[in-house]
Each structure stands twice: as C-alpha cells, then as structure tokens.
Design goal:
heterodimer; A: alpha/beta; Ribosomal Protein L15, Chain: K, domain 2; Four Helix Bundle (Hemerythrin (Met), subunit A); 2 domains; four-stranded mixed sheet; 17% strand; globular; B: Lambda Exonuclease, Chain A; two-stranded antiparallel sheet; 7 helices; 6 strands; 45% helix; EC 3.1.-.- (chain A); antiviral defense (chain A)
C-alpha cells in the first residue's frame, strides 16, 4: 500500500539504487520507492537530481510548504496520463459559458451541502440551504462566487458555536491568519489542496483548466475547485475534532503581534490526524465497496471526467451521514 | 494522407483484446483514458511475463503491435503470454491480429501463433485461416465504429469488480 510521506524536519533527499533516503544529522530513513504516493515537505529540503529522476520515473509528486506552512509549489512530474480528447473536452466546458457555469454551480452546491452536514452534525440550524437557492438565478461566475461567499460567511459565524471560547474568531482572515482558528483553516486548506493535486495528477485531467476559480498561471486551479467540496469534510471536521478533544491547544501556536501560526508540535499533530482521516474508509453506496477518504477525491475526478465526456452528469459528493 | 484501410490498421492488440471483454473499456482505452497503471492484475501479468520467459525479448512493430516474444524456425512463431485461459477468445483474436498484421502489412506468410499460459502449464496453437481473417476485418471495422461514437454505457458483467475501470464506470 502506497502512502504519503510528511517530512517535517530539514534534511536531504537522496537516492541509492531504487530507494530514496531522507537524511539529516539525526536520521537516515529509507523510503522504498514503491511505497511512496506523494511527499509533503515542511522543512527545508535538499535533494539530489538522482532522487528527482527516480521520483519522476515513478510519477511521485513532492509538495513544498514554506516556513509558515503555506503551500509553495510542487514538483509535478511529467504527465504520464494524457488524453488529448479529454483536454479538448475540458477546454470546451470552460469556453462554453453555459457548460462552465453548470460545473461551477455544482462545486458550490457540493461545498455548501457538506458545510450544512457539518453544522447539522452539531445540531446547528443555519441558512445555507436557503442561500443556496439563490444559485439558480446566477448567470455569471461572479454571482456564483458571491453566493459561495455568503454561504461561507454564515458557516464561519456558526462555527464559533462549535468551538470552545478561547478559539472563537470573528471572521476568516488569510495571509497571515490573525488567530488560532484561521491558522488551522489555512494550514488544513493548503494541505488538502496538495492532496487533491496529487489525485488529479493520477488522472487524465489537466489541473490548470478550472470552472469555479479562474484558470490562472500561478495555481493548479482545478485543485482549488475540487478542494471546495472536501474542505468541510476533511479540514473543518478535523479542526473541531482536534480542538474539542483538546489535542490542539494554545501551546501549539506561535503568536506574534499580527499573526498566528501553528508551531512544529501543532503541525505534527494536525498532519498525523489528517493522514489518519485520508486513510479512513467508508462503504461507498454506488460502488458497494470500501473506499478511503483520499480515494473519494479520485472518484470525484472520475465523475468530472465522465461529465466532460458526456457519459454521466456530474453530481458532487455530499456526505450522507 | 493515409488511406482508410491504413487508418483502420492503426489498431493495437490491446484493443482487439478489449473488444471481446468490454466495449466501454475499449472506448476509454482508445481515448487514452487509461487506468491500467493502477491495476494489480496488470502488474501481475507483467511480472509473470518477465519471470517466465527471462531470456526472451518483446518486439514492438510499427509502434502498434507488441509481441511478447518471437521464435524463428522455418516459419515464424509468435508468442503471447497470458495469466489464465478464462478469456480465451480475446487472447486468440489478439494473437490472430498480430498474424494478420504481419501477413498483410509485412508480407510474412508462414506464421504460427502460440498462446502461453505458464501458470497452468498450458499452450494453445492459433492459425489464421480465411474465416478468421474475415472475422478480424469485421472486428477492426466495428472497433472503428465504437470508438468514433459516444462512450458506450457500461454493462455490469462478472469481471467488472476485477477491472481497473470498475470505480470509473460505476461511480
């Protein structure tokens, strides 16, 4: 079984035959190549070109995060799975406004319904489904984005009722996050973004053609699109769990005048639990087979491919529990 | 410009094989929506091939047909290695297609095909005759029609659960 490797400390990544080693003054840890699904590098990483050659050959992505835990970029190996036919379909669905807005709305719908499920789990009434009704009248992407923004505002406000007093927050603030919850959301979202990107890499989808977010040159924006659906499921629920179980507390943060970030200890706890969640399985209703949460992201990519090919209309994944 | 008959022949053995197994798989594979890289069965097949016939080398001809190995006798012996003989017809026509291709495109007349099933220690000899050749022409045309149309709706069959496309088809 392949797994994600999270490298939290500084070190060197080198290759000896068909094994990659993570080396620093404390450890020399072998990582057999056929065990690696993706590498997440949080420390500063030095690597040899030989190591990169091997990772490229095996199609393994390396995601880099900076000192603040923000996503910096990925070593995204040469595409092995390319389908010209699919890329043309992907572009067609972007260029045709009706087709684009259909998919964009589905992403917002999926995200909103999952947010609603999260709040319902904590028995919190909310306005998400009524705001979601406004989606029908939207004819522009900016209007769709606006509905999404209003849903999130309502959702974040309700989040305070789930969180203990010292974790309450006013609003979502990014770059830099001002308080603990914002720090957790930012950290979790960039982790999820990388996870989604690795899943997209293993399909024929082109990560730069997106529907809700504008395709841009700086980001693999399709990963942003698909992340929306999974943020409530994989990031937000994890935050409530970690905070309410007191697995993460004020000691896990590094605070300054105008920012707040997870420290090393906090990151380790977060990542460990995050990875546990990715591996957790559920019995999939359609497939009648156990699938992991990570695999759900892949299935979402498959559903999108089928929609683009005209095989089956896309319906976003919504938790049924 | 390539002629129609030429275009028809841009078909690889795997497509002939999939034609007998599942039309959806054939369509997706032909449009480069490939999933085999994740299939344990496919890796197993590759492993079996590399372990059973270590000294033999695979031949790829015109970037189109890959023959597991070839023996040169007073005739040409094409070998295809398979795991089990459950899909006999698809194996048979895949190998017949290689024979057909070499005969019609390369003018090689004296060819014999052998299917090897090392795991069950069995072999089967395949010969291209007039009626099989006619079958192949129909199959090739049919494959062309399938892949130039919409994706065929998946049909649930016994082997779905083992297929690399299972999740894709049924999600």
């Amino acid at each position: 079984m392949k797994k994600n490797y999270y490298l939290m400390s500084d070190g060197l990544l080198k290759r000896k035959e068909n094994t990659v080693y993570f080396v620093n003054k404390d450890v020399k840890k072998p990582i057999p190549i056929n065990k690696i699904y993706a590498i997440y590098a949080y420390g500063s990483l030095t690597f040899s070109s030989q190591a990169i050659h091997l990772l490229a050959k095996e199609g393994i992505a390396v995601h880099f995060f900076n000192y603040y835990g923000y996503y910096d970029g990925s070593f995204y190996p040469r595409e092995k799975l390319l389908s010209g036919d699919l890329i043309i379909k992907q572009a067609e669905h972007y260029l045709d406004h009706e087709k684009r807005i259909f998919i964009a709305k589905k992403f917002v719908e999926g995200a909103a319904k999952n947010m609603d499920k999260v709040l319902k789990y904590y028995s919190l009434e909310n306005h998400i489904s009524s705001i979601l009704n406004d989606l029908d009248g939207c004819n522009k992407i900016t209007e769709v984005m606006n509905v999404e923004g209003r849903i999130r505002a309502d959702y974040y406000q309700k989040m305070n009722q789930i969180l203990p007093e010292d974790f309450e927050f006013e609003k979502r603030v990014k770059r830099p996050p001002e308080n603990m919850v914002n720090a957790l959301i930012s950290f979790g979202n960039s982790l999820l973004y990388s996870t989604v990107l690795s899943e997209i890499y293993n399909t024929q989808l082109n990560p730069t053609i997106s529907y809700l977010h504008e395709p841009s040159q700086r980001r693999f924006s399709l990963a942003l699109d698909l992340s929306e659906i999974f943020k409530p499921i994989l990031v937000d629920r994890l935050i409530f769990y970690l905070v309410n179980k007191k697995m993460i507390n004020a000691d896990d943060f590094e605070k300054d005048l105008n920012y707040c970030l997870l420290n090393d200890k906090g990151r380790k706890t977060f990542i460990k639990q995050y990875d546990e969640r990715l591996k957790k399985t559920i019995k999939h209703r359609e497939l009648n087979r156990k699938v992991s949460y990570k695999r759900l992201i892949r299935l979402e990519s498959y559903k999108l491919i089928k929609h683009l090919l005209g095989t089956k209309e896309y319906k976003p994944f919504v938790m049924w529990w | 410009m390539i002629s129609d008959s030429e275009k028809q022949l841009r078909i690889i053995g795997t497509q002939i094989n999939y034609y007998f197994i599942c039309k959806t798989k054939l369509w997706l594979f032909s449009h480069h929506i490939q999933m085999e890289q994740e299939s344990d069965l496919v890796s197993l097949g590759k492993l079996l091939h590399s372990k059973s016939y270590k000294d033999e080398k695979e031949y790829t001809i015109d970037n189109l047909i890959s023959i597991d190995f070839i023996k040169k006798r007073d005739y040409l012996e094409l070998h295809e290695v398979k795991k089990s003989n459950k899909m006999k017809k698809s194996h048979e026509y895949q190998l017949l297609y290689y024979t057909y291709y070499l005969k019609n495109k390369k003018g090689i007349k004296n060819i014999k095909g052998i299917l090897n099933y090392p795991k069950i220690r069995k072999k089967a000899t395949i010969n291209l005759d007039k009626s099989k050749e006619k079958d192949l022409m129909d199959i090739i045309e049919d494959i062309g029609n399938i892949i130039n149309n919409e994706t065929p709706k998946p049909q649930k069959i016994k082997i779905c659960r083992k297929c690399a496309y299972f999740e894709f088809c049924w999600v």
